[in-house]
Amino acid sequence: MLFNSIDFAVFFPLVFVLYWFVFSGNLRVRNTFLLVVSYVFYGWWDPRYLVLLAISTLVDFSCGLAINLPKNERRRKAILFISLAANLCILGFFKYYNFFISGFQDAFRLMGHELSVSSLNLVLPVGISFYTFQTMSYTVDVYRRRIEPTSDLLAFGAYVSFFPQLVAGPIERAGNLLPQFFNQHNFDYTAAVNGCRQILWGFFKKLVIADNCGVLADAIFNQYDTQPGGTLLLGAFFFSFQIYGDFSGYSDIAIGTARLMGFELMKNFSFPYFSRDIAEFWRRWHISLSTWFRDYMYVPLGGNQGSEVKKTRNILLVFVISGFWHGANWTFILWGLANALLFLPLLVMKKNRIHLEVADAGKTLPGPGNLLRMCLNFLLVMLLWILFRSHTVGEAMTIYSRIFSASVFEGGAYYSQGQVIITLGLLGFFVATEWVGREGAYAIEKTFAAKHRSLRWTFYSLLIFLTGLYMHRGGSPFIYFQF
Amino acid sequence: MEKFFKNIVVFTVAATAAYILMMTMAGWLMPPASRKNLVYTYGGNGFENLRLIEAKDNKNIDILFIGSSRAYRSFDTRIFEDAGYNCFNLGSSNQTPVQSLAILEKHLPGMLPKTVVMEVNPDIFSNDGIESAIDLVSNAPSLPEMFAYSKCGINDIRIVNTLIFSMATKLAGMEERFARPVKGQKYITGGFVQTEEKPYDKSAGNDYHCDIKSRQLEALDKITRLMQRNNIRLWLVQSPVVPALYNSCGQNVYFDSLMTGKARYTNFNAQGKFTDTIHFSDGQHLNEEGVKNLCSWMLNILNQNPK
Fold first, then answer.
1. CA torsion angle for B290, B296, B301, B302 (degrees, to 10)?
2. Cβ–Cβ under 8 Å, residues A245 and A201
């Protein structure tokens, strides 16, 4: 079920009312209800794939309990291995099987042999990368004795399948989310209003910013081989806002929806386009995935300890694998690698943690130095999104070759098209609102917070009006569903 | 919780009022090209505003024509009147069966036609009907009619916005101020639209789709049942398009068989009697000569085989 669908507009209010008025009294009843509605939410897309969700849940529930039993470290490690192998096999089969098969076939062909293994017509189950990572983190944390395993299958099932964040994150940690399934929740007015506000902003990001930018980015990139560099650069600009609005919009709706039911999910985006270097960008973009890789891969590999070679290896591995997490395509691997190559100089010069606070906190406008850093960093990120957006490495290289040529000064006619001007105007409003609200958890958390209610409500009404006037029709799915 | 629900209700009311006010102001103050989801076609091509007003004065007619611009630009009511048929053309821009049904439900009791001639073609059955609903809502002569046409079973923000703006503009009596200019077309009493004679323009009218939608077929089924209940003859007519466009659709045989199963059906493309440069003004619309030929042919069929 899509957040931006009539189905969800009916589903969620119904769930909300039933949750608070019928099922919130008893924890087991409440968790059963959450489990059922989460399975309905997921099964709305294709009920067959509920089996995978159930398998992942049962494997990690059982492994979590089993890891705690033996005192023998080798046996504990073996159980952890079973959990990781089961999850990675499911993920690997559905997401990467065809990629590896075609890779092997190419390799064999180079050696003069034919490998007669055919690729499969597999449908990637929605959200599989998200929930497998979430369940794996549970087993690893139990293995590390950071959390106690749960013996409550209902609560664990509800934790894995919790519908607001099931299909596109945030990728939650058991340490944060699982205990909330064992707590009685009382309705909190402030949290609920905050949730509504974040949902509103999330829908604005998705329906107005992401979808309109997406139409233009698609129109440009679908004809990348005939467009001049200037137009392709504009396409990259729109795609940068499409992916940000789409993914962070989903996270805002997910966090707001969960908050309306008394759950607190982790923050997933923190104004990444106001970052002053690539290290800061990665602390602010898809935070739940970045921290997952930090905690479950980078740190176990040694993190930033040891020799320069080891540190470099760790960074390269983490970025390349996190790129590969996004999809079975060399473009994602190269995207991860390119980010690593931008990050490494900062790490080597120990400048990767110089921008920890929000830029120009307390000021209305950015200082010239920070403005320049933000613009340059955005330009770098935007250029890397071309790799992410392209279907093949060849396509990306063609786009780069056009952008880094004299044709980057061509394509002016495209810039003056009505739809482009409207979208640029909307982006101006969006960026200004994000800048003003950058010290909050999300952009409009504190907008007019100290002012009279009528002013606040007028602002929210303006957002609704702009959504109605400029939303893209057609209900496009969220980009990150495919991951 | 009580405070939350109370504030949600109050906010919903306030935000709805603000939305209506802002949408109306946007329509009045912003240039049409800058308001993406607010389309207002009052008085535009098709003269639907005049047609819907005139329709109310036509009672007990022999033939009622319905359909898209291929109906109001092909079925010249003057030719049928001259042949002794009292008729009216209730076609509208891009009218799909979903809107035809709404129009019939509204006008059938007053007009009480003996025969309804409905223009059908694969292209219009492939259409989502939004453009047509917007046209009807923009041009409806009264608020209840606007509301009725907006409910053509389509969930689309543009129709909601057009409804809000049309109602506000109607209440303010400012429709003419925001009317769309019409070029090269003339409204003829009886609903027909005469187009300025120009040589065939092969670059126009080529947007032809062929992906028949089930909801349009369901609407046609409802129309056939409505006709049966009211004992009205239904004649499904496919008016001609240029041969290249017609042949570009791979579903013609399927479409013909579908229509034949629904009611009396004539496909005027089938016998290849219409030629691009002689009978058409663009890919989908006949010129004066083409209109005369088609109407004569239809009259022959009507006279020879009235049932």
1. 120
2. no
Phi/psi at B195 (nearest 5 deg)? -100, 140
Q: What is the CATH number of the domain that holds B184?
A: 3.40.50.1110
* Residue B19 forms part of a structural domain: no
SS3 state of residue B235: strand
Nearest to B151, CA basis, from B131, B133, B170, B169: B133
* Å between A453 CA and nearest CA of chain B: 10
Distance CA(A460)–CA(A480), nearest Å, equals 27
B28, part of any domain: no
Of B64, B61, B120, B93, nearest to B259 by C-alpha is B120
Tokens 């008729």, located at residue? B87
User: Whose CA is closest to B280, among B289, B268, B272, B271?
Assistant: B289
Amino acid at residue number A439: E
CA distance to partner chain B, nearest, from residue A19 (Å): 13
Which of A314, A295, A272, A29 lies closest to A138, judged by CA? A295
Task: Give B280's strand partners.
Answer: B286
Of all residues in chain B, the one with the smallest CA distance to A472 is B37
Hey, what amino acid is at A394? Answer: G
Residue with tokens 């639907």: B48
In sequence order, the 6+-apart residues with CB closer than 8 A to the CB of A290 are A282, A283, A322
Helix (H) or strand (E) holding A235: helix A229-260
> For residue B258, what are the contacts with CB-CB under 8 A and spacing of at least 6?
B212, B217
Q: Nearest residue of B to residue A422 by CA position?
A: B34
Q: Is residue B157 within 8 angstroms of chain A, CB to CB?
A: yes
Rounded Cα–Cα distance for residues B123 and B103 (Å)? 20
B33 touches A: beta carbon within 8 Å? yes
φ, ψ of residue B153 to 5 degrees: the values are 75, 20
What is the domain extent for residue B271? Answer: 40-304
Contacts of B50 (CB under 8 A, 6+ apart): B187
A326 is catalytic: yes
A151 touches chain B (CB under 8 A): no
CA B214 to CA B126: how far, in whole Å? 9
**B30 lies in some domain:** no
CB-based burial label for B264 (10 Å; 0-12, 13-18, 19+) = middle
- How far is Cα A461 from Cα B1, in angstroms, rounded to an integer? 23
Read off the amino acid at residue A163.
F
User: Which of A241, A256, A160 is closest to A200 using CA atoms?
Assistant: A256
Contacts of B304 (CB under 8 A, 6+ apart): none
- How many of the other CB atoms lie within 10 Å of CB of A405? 12
Report the complex ipTM: 0.88
| Tens digit of each residue's pLDDT, chain A (483 residues) | 888 888 999 999 999 999 999 998 899 999 999 999 999 999 998 899 899 999 999 999 999 999 988 778 889 999 999 999 999 999 988 888 888 888 878 888 888 877 777 777 777 788 888 999 999 999 999 999 999 999 999 999 999 999 999 988 799 999 999 999 999 999 999 999 999 999 999 999 999 999 999 999 999 999 999 999 999 999 999 999 999 999 999 999 999 999 999 999 999 999 999 999 999 999 999 999 999 999 999 999 998 888 888 999 999 999 999 999 998 899 999 999 999 999 999 988 889 889 889 999 889 999 999 999 999 999 999 999 999 999 999 999 999 999 999 988 887 777 778 889 999 999 999 999 999 999 999 999 988 888 899 999 999 999 999 999 999 877 676 776 666
Instruction: Report d(CA B272, CA A35) in Å as an integer.
Output: 63
